[in-house]
Amino acid sequence: MAPEVTDENGCLAPPSFSNIQTQRPTPMSRFIAIPALLAAIALSPLLAQASTPLTSVGITAGIPSTPVKKQGENFFKTTFSFGYQQGKVMLSGAADGTGTFYVDDVITVHVVRPDGTKQSFSYDFSGGCQDAYPLNPVDLSDLFQPGVNKVTVTLADRCGTVVQAPAVFLSTH
Questions:
Q1: Which is it for strands 168-172 and 89-92: parallel, antiparallel or unpaired?
Q2: What span, in angstroms and rounded, lies between the C-alpha atoms of 111 and 132?
Q3: Cβ-contact 88, 97 below 8 angstroms
Q4: N or C: less crowded end of the chain, CB within 10 Å?
Q5: What is the CB neighbour count within 10 angstroms for residue 17?
Q6: Is 164 helix (H, G, I), strand (E, B) or coil?
Q7: Type and span of the H or E element at 38
Q8: pLDDT tens track, the chain, 173 positions
C-alpha cells in the first residue's frame, strides 16, 4: 500500500500515479491476446444467434419431379403440432427461415390455433400454368397464437404434367 501524502494544509493529497510501474507486453502475451481477440470477433455472430431461439420443422425434404396421376390432385399432405410463443413464423426453403421456395403448383397452410380458431394461407406458384417462380420467405406470424398450434400443409397440382417441390420449412425466431 502506498504511503499517504498530505498537502501543505494537512489534507490528503490525491494519489500520484507517477510511481506506478508498468510493464510492456511481452511477445508471448501478444501471441496469446491477438488470437483470443480474433476468436471473439469470429464467434460473436454465433453467440448472437444462440440468444435467439429457433424452431424449425421440415415440411418436406424435397419431392422430385413426378408425373401427375390426376390433374388437380393433392400430392402431399402433412399435419403436425407447432409450439409457438413469440417472434416471426416463416415459410421458406431453408431451416433458418431465409430461403426462397416453390411448389409445382399450390401450397396451402391451415392452422388450428390453441383457442380453436382457424387461419389459412394459400399460394399458387403456377403463374397461370406457365412457369413456376420461387417465392421469397413468407411471414405467417398472423396465423399463429402462443401455445401449441395444429398445422396442416397440403401441396397440390393445378396444371397437370408433373408435381414437385424442393425442401420447405416452417421456422420461428
A1: antiparallel
A2: 25
A3: yes
A4: N
A5: 7
A6: strand
A7: helix 27-50
A8: 555 555 565 555 555 544 445 455 555 544 454 544 444 444 444 444 444 457 899 999 999 999 999 999 999 999 999 999 999 999 999 999 999 999 989 999 999 999 999 999 999 999 888 876 899 999 999 999 999 999 999 999 999 889 999 999 999 98
Residue ranges per structural domain of the chain: 24-52, 55-172
The continuous run of DSSP H or E covering 41 comes out as: helix 27-50
C-alpha cell at 9: 494544509
How buried is 139 (Cβ within 10 angstroms: 0-12 exposed, 13-18 middle, 19+ buried)?
middle
**Short-list 123, 121, 120, 132, CA closest to 159:** 132
- Burial grade of 145 (CB within 10 A; 0-12, 13-18, 19 or more): middle
pTM equals 0.68
**Could you tell me which residues are beta bridge partners of residue 106?**
124, 156
Third-level CATH fold of 55-172: Jelly Rolls (2.60.120)
The C-alpha atoms of residue 54 and residue 33 are separated, in whole angstroms, by 33
